[in-house]
Amino acid sequence: ADYNVKLLSYLPIYTGSFVASDIxxxxxxxxxxxxxxxxxxxxxxxxxxxxxKLIHLRLKLQELKDPEEDEPNLRVLLEHRFSKEKSKSVKxxxxxxxxxxxxxxxxxxxxxxxxxxxxxxCMNLITKPCVRSKVSHQSEYELNICPEIGLDKxxxxxxxxxxxxxxxxxxxxxxxxxxxxxxxxxxCHWNDSAVIPARVIHNxxxxxxxxxxSSMRYLTLMISRPVLKLREINPxxxxxxxxxxxxxxxxxxxxxxxxxxxxxxxxxxxxLLLQLQDRQHFVENDDMYSLQDLIDISSGRLSCSLxxxxxxxxxHIKLDCERCQxxxxxxxxxxxxxxxxxxxxxxxxxxxxxxxxxxDCYYDNSTTCPxxxxxxxxQS
Length: 380
Fold this sequence. Notes:
With 380 residues, this protein is α+β, with helices and mostly antiparallel strands. It contains 16 helices and 14 strands.
């Protein structure tokens, strides 16, 4: 009976006819509800019902503290393009204050460029520009492994927001970002993990390491960008990773197939080259890689998909299309055998005139091209 009397005294709030307009009155109601929960039998229906009402009270209090205003749908700030979110059910965390975003009662925004999420009330506190601009203008990775400079060089402050930090956790815990090597506070470093490009390039290591929020966003935006020229950064990698050699050969073959497709009506209608639309750089060069390429090479996923595409391309040129077949070559050294194509595994191609020969014939002839020989003699 005592429980019912206490409950009835707050019934207008519970049922939704919100009469407790005063914040202090709401706080008293919440405290009373919390006390009731402790007094009621454990796991009882009445206790569960009171917990649900406590949640409702807290939401009402939050709504009163942070009333929804008529916010614009798009806001531009420090190169961020913030779009107002309509989702009310998805639970998110504010990238600025690290508090939960209650979509049901709070206005919040997401940057369409870097996916930075924050409360509407936190937007004017943002000091970090959108990393999308860094991706567009810089487009390169830090290729030194965890380039630490030390907390003393950071003046014992967070590298991003300049909050005082220390390794002892007083006044705030210092967390190191494995990508930048710098230290951050817990608001700027949430212990997210990511594959580190420098560790992949130098050690062929794909174990995720802890990174700060800004590094996480940057690495996420950069992961599919072909900015890694392995042949220049670490050419020895090809001596130790067989899969890289295999992928390089497949890419070289695809580049040799490309001229057939761009002059073939059937190939254009079948949109064969669009099979590589997610890796457009594969039809432009054979030496640039994205971090996602390297991750997929390590897992074996890229080898499977690229081999399948290579087979489809070769089948079109050598078997399915008469026009492409007619562009094949006959070995000009032995004049025998089947029609040759520059991407065949048993052929060699002259770098000057692109003539195609049996590999054995070419090397037996001291890698001398009969087409180019007259020109060479006349020049001498």
